[in-house]
Amino acid sequence: MSNQEINFESTESFARKMDELDSLKRFRDKFYIPKQESGEDVLYFTGNSLGLQPKTVREYIEQELKDWEIFGVEGHFHAKSAWMPYHEFLTKPMANVVGAKEIETVVMNSLTVNLHLLMVSFYRPNGKRNKIVIEKNAFPSDQYAVKSQIDFHNVLSPAFRRQEDEQHFGQNINEKPPEGGTQNALIELAPREGETILRIEDIEKTLRENGDEIALVLLGGVNYYTGQAFDMKRITEIGHEIGAVVGFDLAHAAGNLELHLHDWNVDFAAWCSYKYLNSGPGGIAGVFVHERHAQNFDLPRFAGWWGHDKETRFLMDDKFVPMRGAEGWQLSNPPIFQMASLRASLEIFEEAGMKNLREKSVKLTNYLEFLLNEIKDERIEVITPVNPSERGCQLSIRVKNSDKNLFNAITENGVIADWREPDVIRVAPVPLYNTFSDVYKFMEILKNSLQSAN
Ligand SMILES: *Cc1c(COP(=O)(O)O)cnc(C)c1O
Fold first, then answer.
1. CATH homologous superfamily of domain 3-54+354-452?
2. What is the mean pLDDT of residues 270-293?
3. Which architecture does CATH list for 85-350?
4. Nearest atom (ligand 1) to Cα of 112
5. Does ligand 1 lie within 6 Å of residue 272's CB atom?
6. Is pTM, for the whole model, over 0.70?
7. How remote is the CA of residue 43 from the centroid of ligand 1, in Å?
């Protein structure tokens, strides 16, 4: 049943029929769905903010508590899943989620920390080529991270540049450091006047016009606010053509879109795992570093013992010898409980498969869009792109006159969605645990709330 063949209907029986035909329907039962006071399931549409808890998480964490109880420090070797190599158990399933090779993938730290660590290695301002391209409305943490990196590099730039830089990057290191501080080294991509999403031709134009000044392009794979998914393959191509490094923040893309980071030739990427990847609040994050950088030990990096060659890590030598690939960016011995929780969730992704999830996701979100259009109320407008290949599961609904009352009304009726100032309700039907019936019920509540607000 391809999406084109579906004639959507705005009835509860149609939604139920879609649920019956859904080959992934059994997965909902693998998650705890929060309840309303009435005991009914809430209509949970914020898997883009915090994914729901897989029922297996408890068992995975309890195993580690038990092993700690029984073995103490010996758990590093004797736990059911030894702690010493524990992060390696997550590498393959995580690599599968983002279309990467194992050498390119590691789980460690949290997202913003990882963005910093990766910029230490991949933002190499050099003379005139010192700029970073981001989205004008990038998530605040990304903006802070990028701006503080620019400041950091400007402060240090004369001393930071070593002779070898010239060999790695073929650039002239004798040029003066850039003047004008943070602002001058930042290029922000903004939608056209009166538009809310970025056009790829405008992104291309900006990149080419500033081609010899751009050191790094760092965009979100999916914009957290508008839900727009970028053509990461094309942006990477253009970025490389102009001589820049290209990285992505995949917070809203990992576990949402089908990604092919290796094939797209992306230089690096980072993402959190508590959104679509259901690892729980503050869960451990993911990192991708393309294979072609795997043995580039001359890149500057902030080092720690867990990134040291594991064969000789415990010789405790004072000379840092990084591991090949993404693992070489690790700093500390990782949090086992957080990894246990993520492991439970990734097992579900392995079973469901990103391709299948995305296939259902497109239908589910198209259905949501269909129902929203059926309402025909000019007070609401979807600002997310209409083309399914330019979005993930989230639709961002703009409420005219910035009226939060509408959001409050749907919340009182059992919907968990999310309000973003000044005027947007984000709704993300997640293919692992949301149903067509959820979407239908949401639309009924929205319709009623709009009517009573009349
Ligand atoms: C969720 C999100 C973050 C959160 O960063 P943490 O370091 O995990 O707190 C950062 N950037 C983007 C784009 C996000 O969507």
1. Aspartate Aminotransferase, domain 1 (3.90.1150.10)
2. 98
3. 3-Layer(aba) Sandwich (3.40)
4. 7
5. yes
6. yes
7. 24
